Amino acid sequence: MPDSLLSFLKEELMTAYHIIEDVNYSKIICSNLTFDILYYIHQVPLLDEPSKKIIHINAQQFRRDSDKILHRLKVVAGKATRIYARQTVRARVDKKFATEFQIENHLQIPLPGKYRYGLFYQGELVSLAVFSGGRTMKNKGENHRSFELLRFCHKSSLLVVGGLSKLIKAFIADFKPNDIMTYVDMDWSQDSSLKTIGFKIEGQNPPQNFWIDQHKQYTVLQPLDLEKIKLEHPTGYLIQNQGSIKLVLYVDYTI
User: Fold this and answer.
1) Are 116 and 94 in contact (CB under 8 A)?
2) R_g (Cα) of the chain, nearest Å
3) Which residues of the chain are in CATH 3.40.630.30 domains?
4) Distance of alpha carbon 255 from alpha carbon 253, whole angstroms
5) What is the mean pLDDT of each run of 10 residues along the chain (255 residues)?
6) Distance from C-alpha of 249 to C-alpha of 122, rounded to nearest angstrom
7) Tell me, what's the pLDDT at 46?
8) The domain at 82-180 falls in which architecture?
9) From CA 27, how far away is CA 22, in angstroms rounded?
């Protein structure tokens, strides 16, 4: 268990805690926060149904991305610096700038996407949304076009209140999608605040294994895959997520 995580909980989040130790994981019970933390080595352990939200932190990822993880914990704990979307200026962002922003601020690998929208506060990029190109979904109608929200993040421990809603409204105005779908990582959220802006849950993906190396992600489907990937990318590390929630925002143009 890293001292930097424990001191952050005590000094920055000002929470009392106690630790339940196991061979492969440590569970940190945070008495006055809305979440507890499961800090694990390789594979996510199967535990009884938790009484409150659990944030899963992989030990190897923490060693590489501790600053980003600590910033994210500060946001989830409600101790972020708040900016309101009405105080920001919306603009399109180029691929290079968007990739650099994701590397600095997003816990998952950066994705260039096809369309990138940002919010700027006093000339600085503080929120970014990355969207895919459109796909025709004939099972939903002859001209039904669906886009994916691939990535969304704020800068460090900032929280732009209403930021995602403002970015999505801009995207809808420009491209007239029939729906926008996305996946929410269950390592950090067993529910999703996206429901408050109209997204509906439409499914759930099971846990998956990934090998992470140099801002690239390789899906591990079976042990033989892992051995091959390790040989080709020896500096990476293995991570197992908790799965993801699929959400869809349907756009009604009759309103």
Assistant:
1) yes
2) 19
3) 82-180
4) 5
5) 95 95 91 93 68 89 94 95 97 97 95 97 97 93 94 95 96 97 86 85 89 86 86 86 91 82
6) 30
7) 64
8) 3-Layer(aba) Sandwich (3.40)
9) 8
How many other CB atoms are there within 10 angstroms of residue 238's CB atom? 18
Give every CB contact of residue 143 below 8 A, 6+ residues apart in sequence.
136, 178
126 Cα distance to chain centroid: 16
- Distance separating alpha carbons of residues 129 and 211, to the nearest angstrom: 25
Structure tokens at 172: 């809808």
Largest CA distance in the chain: 57
Which residues are within 8 A (CB) of 115 and not within 5 positions of it... i.e. 6 or more apart? 92, 130, 131, 132, 133, 171, 174, 175
Tokens of 55: 């944030």
Contact 9, 30 (CB under 8 A): yes
**Identity of the amino acid at 101:** F
